[in-house]
Amino acid sequence: MFLLPKGNPLFENLAVSKLKLPDVLTKLSNGAFTGYASFVFQANTALLVFEAGKLVSVLVEGQNGKRESGFAALSALAELMVTTGSGALNVYKLSKDLTMCIHALLEGETLYKAQELKLIDIKTLLEKVKEDQMNGCLRIYTDEHSAMIFYKDGNPLGFFHDGSSDIETSSSESQKIAGLPGAKIDLFSTQSADELMGTNLLEVTNIQKIWDTSVAQHKSEIDRTNLERQERDKKAVSQKLAELEEHVKSIVGEYVGKVGRGIVDKEISDNGGNACLIDADGAEKFMKGIERAAKLLVSGTNIKLMMEKLSSTISIAKSEF
């Protein structure tokens, strides 16, 4: 995303996580705001251009250079605000004419794109800008440097370059960049500020519905993720309980023989399933049932050894749940 002049900052570095898009747009609209708002996220940037409270342009750009505008951009912005949990909002007030130029830069008609400066007659081009009374922006840049010249009715409004924070009256930096090897230009044009006033995205889009849809979708995604996690956890617990049950059966079988598995099955069934093995009361009842059944089959010494081993096994298993 291009660096833009900051003009008069109204808000800077507001935490997006505490904001709602409909509230932000309503406040700027009701305040007849002229300028732009930038939402800066880790991997995306959104720019909203206002003219006297009317939303005339919206652009969202990702790190991969993919751009969205209009309704799609508002939907993307709402989703970013709801899902990222981070980001900052900056709001800068600009003049009516400069705001028109920012709109041209973001969404205006592209007359030249990445045109090598050495291949065109820049003097003739600037004369045409003046003759056609063009409104827009001329961007001059290399891989390392960039400058912009904003025009109204073919006359330069001012100059802006990387490293500056506001519009300047000197063209020296632009001339320096134009003289660098590999310099290129982009030229964007747009309607006049008065013509732009006929556009207001807030009148043709239901911002509240866009926001509510993003919130609902995010909640649905969270619920789905939580459900999947619960299912995974439930499956893992079920598997661990099955392994514990098998271990208990092998211990009881070791001391009372083949009938041991049947004794364990009966006690588990009587106590509501193998989850009783990791429940304090359930495990106590299970152990008493096993001990009671074993007294009919083996000696007291073997019962004691068996019960000690069962108690140790179940205690260790409990700590792992």
How would you portray this structure in words?
With 321 residues, the protein is of the alpha+beta class. The protein has 2 domains: 198 residues, no CATH class; 92 residues, no CATH class. Helix content is 50%, strand content 24%. It has 11 helices and 11 strands. Strands 1-6-2-3-4-5 form a 6-stranded antiparallel beta sheet, with helices on both faces. A 5-stranded antiparallel beta sheet has the order 7-11-8-9-10, sandwiched between helices. β4 and β5 form a beta hairpin. α9 runs antiparallel to α10. The radius of gyration is 35 Å and the shape is rod-shaped. 33% of the residues are buried. The mean pLDDT is 89.
Structural class: alpha+beta
Rough outline: rod-shaped
Strand percentage? 15-25%
> What's the total number of strands?
11
- With strands numbered from the N-terminus, the spatial order across the biggest sheet is 1-6-2-3-4-5
Q: How far apart, in Å, are the first and last alpha carbons?
A: 50 Å
Mean pLDDT level: 89
User: How many strands, which pairing sense, and closed or not: the largest β-sheet?
Assistant: 6 strands, antiparallel
How many separate domains?
2
Unreliable runs: none
Secondary-structure element series? EHEEEEHEHEHEEEHEHHHHHH
Fraction of residues in H or I helices: 40-55%
The rounded Rg comes to 35 Å
Continuous helix count: 11
